[in-house]
Amino acid sequence: MKFYNKEEQLATLQQMRTLSYESYSRLTVVAGRRRIGKTTLIKEAFKDESYVYLFVGKKSEAVLCKEFCEEFQAKTGVFVPSMNVFRDVFRFFMEEGKRHKNTLVFDEFQNFLEVNRAVYGDIQNWWDQYQKESHVNMVVSGSVFSLMEKIFKHRKEPLYGRQDATIKLQAFPTGILKQIMEDNAPGYTNDDLLALYTYTGGIPKYVELLVDLKATTGRKMINQICRADSPLIEEGKKLLVQEFGKKYATYFSILQAISMGYNTQADIEDYLGGKSLGGHLQKLEETYELVRKVRPVWAKPKTQSVRYEISDIFLRFWFRYIEKNQRLIEIGQYPVLKKIMEEDYEAYSGSVLERYFKSKLVESMEYLDIGGWWDPKGYTDSKGNHQQCELDIVALRLKGNILDVIEVKRNPGKFSEQLLQEKINHFEAKEKNARRKTIARKCLSLEDM
């Protein structure tokens, strides 16, 4: 699959290289979850020159230093003496930067924490001494987001504030997923596009995996996922164990609960046996950025109407089908797993379609605020019956004081204008802000993707 959609990030990396070579050394941090495309981005940015790529494996410091010295010598032609501690190696690199301009890439930079925690202090020491008189374009990347945040953004850490630029990679936007389907599967259906979004969340490596296997229909995607040799089977666990370490069990259970529809703190705690989980939920939201709080639009910060959702679309899918059905996988019942996914796809993808349209509206840059709205108490309809009240999407346009109220349905034939209008009436009765807007109601379906 060809390279897509990182022009702004490419420009940043290349600008930092130019500044490093023309004036003095710069440090760029590239962060993002596993399989998001960090290494691919760096390779694309510097494909027109020879650069030194150093992977920080979980090895002894002496072994890593030997590998780093050999790689630096191979790529630059500069003789590198034997060194066994990183402090000496990094000083050599910075001194060499006074004589020759070079790009130095450290991949999985957070792994130094397991090699020798003192490395970051050594880097700070030599960086501060040599930065202004050397020409090193230093790029560090890491896939354990919480650790990368700590290394560069915690005030007590040696490298706090040393970066000149930070690039945080995100999943492919909806427009790029459409372009990928157009390029690789002409004649695709919108349901195929939704399936790609549902099963990959727009994570570049997962998209590439399916596209390269020609799995560009929903059925073919399920066939590739439900195989003993599918890398996606183990991917969720690898990603999260990498973030959480050995103490991952409670976090796994919380994410499993949210994926099954237990989306309030009280419901999650009840599901897990009454255990207090406020601290775990806070870490999942603020430190790991794997879940997020969702409030009704215009709700006050301290409202009790708070729901949790898994931020990562792929993880949401993985917990619902793969983690939940580990027993089937252990005994090799992949045809049964495939049947479960196929039979549940229409119901499950309906909720994912809502996330797709919210992302699409954000990408349009035409809205000031985008969210949903619900009243836990519901309302009484014109016939005196109690009804639940939830508006899928409420989006305030940048211009015209117009509020779009949107119902999302896979099948537009199931949309009821009367029911939506009743919900809007209740919404306006509860929310003064809504009464001051011109409300435009509509339905979005597969046809509108």
List the helices and strands and how they pair.
Elements: H1 7-22, E1 26-31, H2 38-45, E2 52-55, H3 61-76, H4 86-96, E3 102-107, H5 112-115, H6 119-130, E4 136-142, H7 145-153, E5 165-168, H8 174-184, H9 190-200, H10 204-212, H11 218-225, H12 232-244, H13 249-259, H14 265-271, H15 278-287, E6 291-294, E7 307-310, H16 313-323, H17 326-330, H18 334-364, E8 367-380, E9 386-397, E10 402-408, H19 417-430, H20 432-435, E11 438-444
Parallel strand pairs: 1-4, 1-5, 2-3, 3-4, 10-11
Antiparallel strand pairs: 6-7, 8-9, 9-10
Helix pairs in contact: 1-2, 4-6, 9-16, 9-18, 12-16, 13-16
Folded structure, characterized:
This protein has 20 helices and 11 strands. With 449 residues, the chain is of the alpha/beta class. Among the domains are: 7-168, Rossmann fold, CATH 3.40.50.300; 365-448, 3-Layer(aba) Sandwich (Trna Endonuclease, Chain: A, domain 1), CATH 3.40.1350. The strands form 3 sheets. Strands 2-3-4-1-5 form a 5-stranded parallel beta sheet. A 4-stranded mixed beta sheet has the order 8-9-10-11, sandwiched between helices. Strand 9 (386-397) and strand 10 (402-408) form a beta hairpin. The longest helix is centred in the last third of the chain and has 31 residues, at 334-364. The model has no long low-confidence stretch (mean pLDDT 95).
Briefly note the structural class of the backbone: alpha/beta
How many strands, which pairing sense, and closed or not: the largest β-sheet? 5 strands, parallel
CATH architecture of one domain: 3-Layer(aba) Sandwich
**What is the percentage of strand-forming residues?**
15-25%
Strand order in the largest sheet: 2-3-4-1-5
Distance between the termini: 22 Å
What is the fold named in CATH at topology level of one domain?
Rossmann fold
Q: What is the CATH class of one domain?
A: Alpha Beta
**Count of separate DSSP helical elements:** 20
Average pLDDT reading? 95
Radius of gyration: 25 Å
- Contiguous low-pLDDT stretches (5 residues minimum) are none
Shape type: elongated
Please count the beta strands (DSSP E, at least 2 residues each): 11
Percent of residues in helical segments? 40-55%
What is the fourth-level CATH superfamily of one domain? P-loop containing nucleotide triphosphate hydrolases
